[in-house]
């Protein structure tokens, strides 16, 4: 009986170590394995065990561990959760610094974000905006949008952020009419990777880009946006620069593409 207990306890300890430390350490160097392990296996397991979704768990971490009305505290709480508890597809702390630097450099009045998810990057962007600036962020998933609204409000930034539910292809052509925005100074692309190129062309056609507008695209190496990169780098209408980095909260290769629209 005691021997069985010892074996059972040992097996449980090994299984815990496998799930908690070994597999995360193994997959962090490979983007595909990272997505498969954390989303297809661990994410579904946590959804079942907790009867909640990852966005809901992220919101819980924000409300538990951050200071209300303090955007940097909100960002830090999400980074800590994603590094030590559960991987998530935020832009993350490393590439977040590239995003912060770009926002500060451009000093935009109007920003468009494609892909809100839980509001992490929206908080980073909005916290750096001037008093009369505005971020418009588009999110297709209504459940993600509901959580993002709460995260943004917890950070005290709801007055600087207009969150719009719906597809980018639907909203891009009517942003001017709906919100009275003539052009954007900065666009952050972090939604479906296959939508980067058609949405960029749609923004061009809709007249939302002016001479000097900066496009910052995430995940151009992994999961990758080869058609977007080919277009943006070969077009005479853009001057482009690549920033080598890593997939959020891992050591897998990734990067961001910063492109200036030349008119």
Your description of this structure?
It is a single chain. Helices cover 53% and strands 19% of the residues. The chain has helices at 2-27, 31-50, 54-65, 71-84, 92-106, 120-126, 142-154, 168-171, 175-179, 196-205, 220-224, 226-234; strands at 110-114, 134-139, 161-165, 184-189, 209-217, 238-246, 253-261. It has a seven-stranded mixed beta sheet with strand order 3-2-1-4-5-7-6, with helices on both faces. α7 (142-154) links the parallel β2 (134-139) and β3 (161-165). α3 (54-65) packs across α4 (71-84). 41% of the residues are buried. The model has no long low-confidence stretch (mean pLDDT 92).
Annotation field: number of helices = 12
As a percent range, the share of helical residues equals 40-55%
Radius of gyration: 20 Å
- Please give the order of strands in the largest beta sheet: 3-2-1-4-5-7-6
Roughly how many Å apart are the termini? 77 Å
Class by helix and strand content?
alpha/beta
Question: How many strand elements?
Answer: 7
- Which regions have little confidence, pLDDT < 50, spanning 5+ residues? none
Strand content: 15-25%
What sort of overall outline do the alpha carbons produce when their principal axes are compared? globular
What is the chain-wise order of helices and strands? HHHHHEHEHEHHEHEHHEE
* Largest β-sheet summary: 7 strands, mixed
